């Protein structure tokens, strides 16, 4: 067995693990990342692209913002459409200047990977049989297999950035975990195409046919979604059928401008709300999807992972630069406060903008629930005060400092 040592072992080379590793390295804190799949596979994941200001600031602090600042598009608002009646949420005006940045998660990941490689920081891709050992002891370790060799990685702390299906959350004893979950009775069929976006700002559209979202990755690449039953398969939806249905769910003015084209990628994502408490067990910290999943309606998934990274980075910086090891006990409490806010907002937006048909939700029959949510959405869109509630949460609540 080969033996390695580092200060922080990071499980998972997605954007949260890579961002944490980059931030730590710039403070002289050593870290090694383990990832179960190849780098190309990680880059092949098509994910979100709306970044809160807090995430943007972290990327800049990590020193990998050049391409994001050059190519990312600042969005000062977005639109909510209800059966062809559109209301623009003016983020900049309603929040006193805050905006979001449109820059694809794949591009962020690529930038972080390239920077990590340039700095010659250690990453093991295709690491198998990863197991976390003695996470409550003074010196935890991670064992894994890479290219047929057995390894033991000694470390001070472990950051579990390995997603919902990873080993990190399962390492916390079941009797100590409280898991909250709601699975929604529909999914999002997403299509990526090299076509100009139908709008320079996002359009969230609620119609009698179901929800639709017009999003984008760049000035030449669009990402569009429609609500579909969980029973649907990707194979059921040809490009032609998707475009036809998507156009029917857009506001008329937008539909007339829609440019269609062949899909680059097409997939159906089920929607769920999930939170694991606590987010810390001994020297193990859960980050991002390892601890929480949100429906994508509020654009919070990647951004909540970033706030986890920010909190853990502050803690580890204080541990190593100020020799304050007691501060690690703050992680779960601080992270979960923001997670619950993000989960509630995403749940709220999902309930207001989707059709539940005859399905029961929140102990209400589908039709009654629909009427309540129609009233809710109308109420918040009808006044500047209501729109401000949406805007403040959409751009992201402030990051919390350590005590």
Please, could you describe this protein's structure?
With 403 residues, the protein is an alpha/beta fold. It has a domain at 2-75 and 99-181 and 272-357: FAD/NAD(P)-binding domain, CATH 3.50.50. Helices cover 36% and strands 28% of the residues. The chain contains 13 helices and 21 strands. The protein has helices spanning 15-26, 39-43, 53-61, 66-71, 91-95, 105-118, 167-171, 239-249, 252-255, 301-322, 331-353, 366-381, 384-395, and strands at residues 2-5, 8-11, 31-34, 50-51, 73-75, 77-82, 85-90, 100-102, 123-124, 128-133, 141-146, 149-154, 157-160, 178-193, 203-207, 210-216, 222-229, 263-277, 280-281, 284-286, 292-293. Strands 7-6-15-16-17-14-18-21 form an 8-stranded mixed β-sheet. A 6-stranded mixed β-sheet has the order 9-3-2-13-20-19. Strands 1-12-11-10 form a 4-stranded mixed β-sheet. Helix 1 (15-26) runs parallel beside helix 6. The protein is globular, with a radius of gyration of 21 Å. The mean pLDDT is 94.
Write a compact overview of the structure shown.
The protein has helices at 15-26, 39-43, 53-61, 66-71, 91-95, 105-118, 167-171, 239-249, 252-255, 301-322, 331-353, 366-381, 384-395, and strands at residues 2-5, 8-11, 31-34, 50-51, 73-75, 77-82, 85-90, 100-102, 123-124, 128-133, 141-146, 149-154, 157-160, 178-193, 203-207, 210-216, 222-229, 263-277, 280-281, 284-286, 292-293. It is α/β, with parallel strands linked by helices.
């Amino acid at each position: 067995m080969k033996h390695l040592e580092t200060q922080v072992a990071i499980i998972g080379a997605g954007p949260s693990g890579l961002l944490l590793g980059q931030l730590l390295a710039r403070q002289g804190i050593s870290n090694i990342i383990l990832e179960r799949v190849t780098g190309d596979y990680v880059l092949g994941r098509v994910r979100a692209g709306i970044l809160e200001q807090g995430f943007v600031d972290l990327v800049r602090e990590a020193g990998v913002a050049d391409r994001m600042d050059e190519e990312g598009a600042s969005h000062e608002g977005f639109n909510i459409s209800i059966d062809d009646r559109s209301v623009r949420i003016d983020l900049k005006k309603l929040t006193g200047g805050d905006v979001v940045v449109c820059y694809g998660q794949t591009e962020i990941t690529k930038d972080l990977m390239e920077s990590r490689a340039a700095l010659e920081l250690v990453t093991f891709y295709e690491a198998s049989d990863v197991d976390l050992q003695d996470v409550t002891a003074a010196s935890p370790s991670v064992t894994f297999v890479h290219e047929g060799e057995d390894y033991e990685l000694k470390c001070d702390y472990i950051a579990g950035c390995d997603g919902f299906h990873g080993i990190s959350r399962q390492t916390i004893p079941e009797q100590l975990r409280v898991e909250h979950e709601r699975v929604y009775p529909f999914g999002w069929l997403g299509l990526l195409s090299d076509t100009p976006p139908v709008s320079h700002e996002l359009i969230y559209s609620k119609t009698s046919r179901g929800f639709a979202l017009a999003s984008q990755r760049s000035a030449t690449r669009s990402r569009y979604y429609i609500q579909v039953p969980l029973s649907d398969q990707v194979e059921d939806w040809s490009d032609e059928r998707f475009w036809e249905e998507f156009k029917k769910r857009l506001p008329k003015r937008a539909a007339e401008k829609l440019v269609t084209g062949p899909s680059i990628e097409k997939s159906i994502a089920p929607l769920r709300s999930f939170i694991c408490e606590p987010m810390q067990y001994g020297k193990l910290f859960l980050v991002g999807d390892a601890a929480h999943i949100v429906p994508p309606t509020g654009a919070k998934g990647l951004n909540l992972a970033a706030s986890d990274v920010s909190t853990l980075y502050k803690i580890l910086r204080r541990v190593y630069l100020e020799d304050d090891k007691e501060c690690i006990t703050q992680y779960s409490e601080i992270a979960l406060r923001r997670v619950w806010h993000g989960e509630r907002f995403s749940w709220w937006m999902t309930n207001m903008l989707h059709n539940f048909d005859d399905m029961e939700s929140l102990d209400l029959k589908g039709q009654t629930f629909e009427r309540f949510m129609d009233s809710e959405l109308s109420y918040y869109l009808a006044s500047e005060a209501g729109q401000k509630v949406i805007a403040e949460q959409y751009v992201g609540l402030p990051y919390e400092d350590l005590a």
